[in-house]
Amino acid sequence: MSRSLSTIAAEITADYRAQGKPVHFSAVPYVQAMYGLNSLTDHFGYDDGRTVVLYALSNLTTWRGDTARRVKAELKAMLAAK
Predict the structure, then answer these.
(1) Residues 6+ apart with CB under 8 A from 78
(2) Which residues are bridge partners to 48 per DSSP?
(3) How much is the pLDDT for 33?
(4) Checking phi first, is residue 65 left (phi over 0); if not, alpha (psi -120 to 50) or beta?
(5) 49 in Cβ contact with 18 (< 8 Å)
(6) Which residue of 9, 14, 43, 76 pairs with 34 in a disulfide if CB–CB is 3.0 to 4.6 A?
(7) CA–CA separation, 36 vs 40, rounded Å?
(8) Rounded average pLDDT over 12-17
(9) How sure is the predictor about 2, in pLDDT bands with cuts at 50, 70 and 90?
(10) Running DSSP on this structure, what letter comes out for residue 44?
(11) How far apart are CA 82 and CA 68, in angstroms?
(12) Which helix (DSSP H) or strand (DSSP E) does residue 48 occupy?
């Protein structure tokens, strides 16, 4: 069972903070949107969770480290499964 997108968003934010950095400015709107989503089928405005995650991944390319690799792989697996 997959974790909720809101849980993943919290982990992304926490990892950035642990690195002493804010979430990259281009990813902020998508990570914030993920806080209001449980799954890829939920909607945030006109976008579904799938779209929000795709945009988040494309804007999280500068996020590095073990947590980043694991979370990005988890999000990509969620996208591939649906």
Answers:
(1) 2, 40, 53
(2) 43
(3) 97
(4) left
(5) no
(6) 9
(7) 11
(8) 97
(9) confident
(10) E
(11) 22
(12) strand 47-48
Given this model, what pLDDT does residue 82 score?
A: 66
Q: Which two tokens stand for residue 40?
A: 């890829």
C-alpha span between 60 and 44 (Å, rounded): 19
Residue type, 55: Y
* Segment 29-82, tens digit of pLDDT: 999 999 999 999 999 999 999 999 999 999 999 999 999 999 999 999 999 996
pLDDT above 90: residue 17: yes
Q: Output the six-digit token pair for 54.
A: 């795709």
Please state the length of the chain.
Answer: 82
CB atoms within 10 A of CB 37: 22
- Centroid of chain to Cα 32: 9
CA distance 1 to 62: 28
